[in-house]
Amino acid sequence: MSGSNAVVRPPGPGNLFRRGELFSARRDPLGFLVSVASRYGDISYFKGGPFEVYFLTHPDHVRDVLTTHHHRFMKGQGIQEMKRLLGEGLLTSEDPMHKRQRRLIQPMFHHSRISAYGDVMVRHANDLGAAWRDGEVLDVHEQMMKLTLSIVGKCLFDTDIGDSAARRVGDALTAALELFGKFQSFPFTDLLMRLPIPAKRRFFEAKESLDSIVFGMIDERRATGDRGDLLSTLLTVQDEEETRGGMSDQQVRDEAMTILLAGHETTANALTWTWYLLSQHPDVERKLHDEVGAVVGDRLPSARDLPQLPYAERILSEAMRLYPPAWVLGRKALDEHEVDGYVIPGGSLVLLSPYVVQHDARWFRDPYGFDPDRWTPEEQRARPKHAYFPFGGGPRLCIGESFAWMEGVLVMVTLARRWRFSLERGHPVGLQPAVTLRPKHGMRMVLERRKNG
After folding, report:
1. Could you give the residue ranges of the DSSP H alpha helices within 131-248?
2. CA angle 327-328-329, nearest 5°?
3. Are 69 and 395 a contacting pair, CB within 8 Å?
4. CA dist 134 → 30, 143, 263, 285, 451 (Å)
5. Which end of the chain is less enclosed by CB atoms within 10 A, N or C?
6. What is the pTM for the complete model shown?
7. Integer CA distances (angstroms), 205 to 2, 18, 208, 269, in order
8. One-character DSSP codes across 7-32
């Protein structure tokens, strides 16, 4: 391109459609992004369908987009599509609405409140483990989804989500992921939504089922009154900084739906990958059991034990480094923005991938190896802060991060007291990079009761 107004783009694969790579890149987005980063470096460019995409993979660039200049970006196309399911909740809304909603909800995730949830997390995990049988083969991903849904239901909505509702939520999530997966392989989503495809029908049936669950919880809470939970807060809070008062039922629905789905899906994935990794590394598993035995012994753990369980936390940190639940983050540039001498035009899509950055050998030696000891305080201080960002960063940092850390460690410790997990012989382990990074084929594992469990 020539002339004074020429746009100098970073290196990259260019127009994927012309090169015949668009659909193959969408079939294996993780492999594609890893390959692009390897070939073209910290900033690259490609065009995927109608989108001009700038892919940034240096921790400094991550900090620039998520924190330093966050106001120059809005959520990307993938999150915009999620509005079809989640509406204008915390995950999908933009300022000023996002800032207002976060201010109203934040108190429910204050450290003092989260600590009180610990006993609920442990009790639900212990009840689940008590129903298992020695030698049984289970889909551990399905079990973790059921468990984390019951935990978020009780902790944040003071609701016991039974097996029937849990199955409806699970089926609805699967239907939503199927449709969003088609969005990834079909660039013109508005056209896709006009086509009479079975995935669209299943999605709207699933959305209707989820709405019935969430609006049912709202109706119940209006009838029973304030119970001090998140749902009560959403229904009764009055924003002192604005005259518009509390939230409409639709706003309450959108926030409740977002927290109900995001609050259990991501943690269930992290725990599933944790059990898989422990099954492949018996030396790490032994160290975990040693720590659990020394700290907890024969009793159930509690939130008070967390400072004495550093190895368990390192295991979870490493699992989320290797398999970050949110494997890619998209932002749309609101105006021109310069990165490393390249100008990203307004309207362009900027991609950041925790998966790619967290597998970069510059920041993590043996980046595809499983090593919880890389999370000692000394090693963490030696790395750029934004080389690890499984919960995002900046003002859009996941509001439930502290909740998720405590839940992940307490569930792991509670179940590891009693059980070991071994991958079923011949079970395939693959990645399903849709909205989150799920195991593609579930995670069928053999349960073995520990002799001292």
Report:
1. 140-157, 163-185, 189-194, 198-224, 230-236
2. 135
3. no
4. 36, 15, 30, 18, 11
5. N
6. 0.92
7. 52, 37, 5, 24
8. --PPSS-EETTTTT-HHHHHHSHHHH
First-residue to last-residue Cα distance in the chain:
68
Can the peptide bond before residue 310 be classed as cis, meaning omega within 30 degrees of 0? no
Q: Tokens 């990958």 identify what position?
A: 273
Q: Which two tokens stand for residue 42?
A: 């910290």
pLDDT in tens, the chain (453 residues): 344 456 789 999 988 877 667 777 878 889 999 999 999 999 999 998 778 999 999 999 999 999 999 999 998 767 777 787 788 888 888 888 888 888 888 888 877 788 889 999 999 999 999 999 999 999 999 999 999 999 999 998 888 887 777 777 777 777 776 666 555 544 445 555 566 667 677 778 878 888 888 888 888 888 888 888 888 888 887 444 444 566 778 888 898 888 888 888 999 999 999 999 999 999 999 999 999 999 999 999 999 999 999 999 999 999 999 999 999 999 999 999 999 999 999 999 999 999 999 999 999 999 999 999 999 999 999 999 999 999 999 999 999 999 999 999 999 999 999 999 999 999 999 999 988 899 999 999 999 999 875
Six-digit token string for 261: 């789905």
For residue 333, which of 56, 147, 104 has the smallest C-alpha distance?
Answer: 56
